[in-house]
């Protein structure tokens, strides 16, 4: 999977600048399509789109959603090699974090559309009202006509101004949840462009934090419990000579999903711990302790 700076390769998560093959890309898409969080992620994406989408464009979202289900189904039924336990844990963690990010962004979108954009639309209406009061010209008039040009126009203008009242609750009700009027749609488009930049930065930052956390744990040398269990079992079976051959290491890499360097480091540290324990329990050390 390639998403905002992260990919999953045979070795785990790496930087997106590292190229991956088409087969790996297909495998990762299939894993995501079969993942239990896939439907929730798709719903979260659609929820973000619906917040600021004009009413007449909603059928397009439904059509694309139906098409996406067909695509996901084709990936889910394609035979692919499964991920290791370690890789699956990292995939679970990343998708869970991504779902939280999408839910958070939906709340931000909702805040902008239902509050900020509506307040901006109210401000535009007030400016238009003031312009009409001072000059008799509406924003939609291009001829420069005034209220005195036609008595009938004057009567209609006065009537419309008296009926509007600019009551905030009435205005919000008339706008509806998606701001369907032309002027408000133009305003929404500007808001959406600003949000696009803001969300992209926020998403990039959050994924960067997740990546740094994964790398930090790797640098700290803390391996998942299931992988250390496999290594400890091998150690106990070969305690008399705990030096795995290259073939043994290759099998351990396949079973644990760890890198060869991580396995080598674990055995080096394990042998050091065993030697330290042996020295602490030697007769000479016990005599020194009694003295």
TrEMBL record:
Subcellular location: Nucleus
Homeobox domain sequence ranges: 214-277
Domain ELK: 194-214
InterPro entries linked: ELK_dom, HD, Homeodomain-like_sf, KN_HD, KNOX1, KNOX2, TALE_homeobox
Region (Disordered): 138-166
One term of GO molecular function: DNA binding
Major subcellular location class: nucleus
Any one GO cellular component localisation term in the record: nucleus
DNA-binding positions: 215-278
Annotated GO biological process: regulation of DNA-templated transcription
The entry's keywords: DNA-binding, Homeobox, Nucleus
Stated family: Belongs to the TALE/KNOX homeobox family.
Protein name in UniProt: Homeobox knotted-like protein
Originating species: Perilla frutescens var. hirtella (Perilla citriodora)
Lineage of source species: Eukaryota, Viridiplantae, Streptophyta, Embryophyta, Tracheophyta
């Amino acid at each position: 999977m390639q998403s905002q700076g992260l990919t999953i390769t045979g070795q785990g998560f790496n930087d997106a600048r590292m190229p991956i093959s088409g087969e790996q890309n297909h495998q990762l898409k299939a894993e995501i399509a079969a993942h239990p969080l896939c439907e929730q992620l798709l719903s979260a994406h659609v929820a973000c789109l619906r917040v600021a989408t004009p009413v007449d464009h909603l059928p397009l979202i439904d059509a694309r959603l139906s098409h996406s289900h067909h695509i996901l189904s084709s990936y889910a039924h394609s035979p692919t090699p499964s991920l290791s336990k370690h890789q699956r844990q990292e995939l679970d963690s990343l998708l869970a974090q991504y779902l939280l990010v999408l839910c958070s962004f939906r709340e931000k979108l909702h805040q902008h559309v239902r509050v900020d954009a509506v307040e901006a639309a109210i401000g535009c209406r007030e400016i238009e009202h003031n312009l009409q009061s001072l000059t008799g010209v509406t924003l939609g008039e291009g001829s420069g006509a005034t209220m005195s040009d036609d008595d009938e126009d004057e009567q209609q203008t006065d009537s419309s101004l008296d009926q509007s009242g600019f009551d905030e609750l009435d205005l919000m009700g008339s706008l509806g949840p998606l701001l369907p009027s032309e002027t408000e749609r133009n305003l929404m488009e500007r808001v959406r462009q600003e949000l696009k930049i803001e969300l992209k930065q926020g998403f990039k930052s959050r994924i960067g934090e997740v990546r740094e956390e994964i790398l930090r744990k790797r640098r700290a040398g803390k391996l998942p419990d299931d992988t250390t269990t496999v290594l400890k079992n091998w150690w106990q079976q070969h305690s008399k000579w705990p030096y795995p051959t290259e073939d043994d290491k290759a099998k351990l890499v396949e079973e644990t999903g760890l890198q060869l360097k991580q396995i080598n480091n674990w055995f080096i540290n394990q042998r050091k711990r065993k030697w330290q324990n042996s020295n602490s329990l030697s007769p000479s050390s016990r005599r020194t302790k009694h003295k």
